[in-house]
Design brief:
single chain; 2 strands; globular; mainly alpha; two-stranded antiparallel ribbon; 4 helices; 96 residues
Length: 96
């Protein structure tokens, strides 16, 4: 994470690159890969970061809670069923 600058002084910004631990992907990234929940990559960073935040707040979300959280992220490839499976996989594994 890095400082957000003048307007965000004291706040941190987490990027998709910042959730991995060195060369090891974050469990949510691993789940998206395992469930083939990414295709063109258009929505992937936003979806993954949203899911990381969701699992930090609610480690075992319901389908409805998952879909509600990712609702604002548009998947152009319509991979929503696979995304839902990936989130469930990450949650089952602890999702960090």
């Amino acid at each position: 994470m890095r400082d957000a600058g003048r307007r965000g002084r004291g706040k941190k910004i987490l990027t998709i690159e910042g959730i991995a631990a060195g060369d090891r992907l974050h469990p949510v990234q691993e789940a998206f890969l395992a469930e083939d929940a990414l295709q063109c990559g258009y929505c992937t960073p936003g979806m993954i970061l949203e899911v990381v935040a969701l699992l930090a707040e609610k480690p075992k979300p319901t389908d409805e809670e998952i879909l509600s959280r990712v609702d604002g992220h548009i998947c152009r490839c319509s991979h929503y069923p696979k995304i839902l499976k990936a989130v469930k996989r990450a949650a089952a594994g602890g999702g960090r």
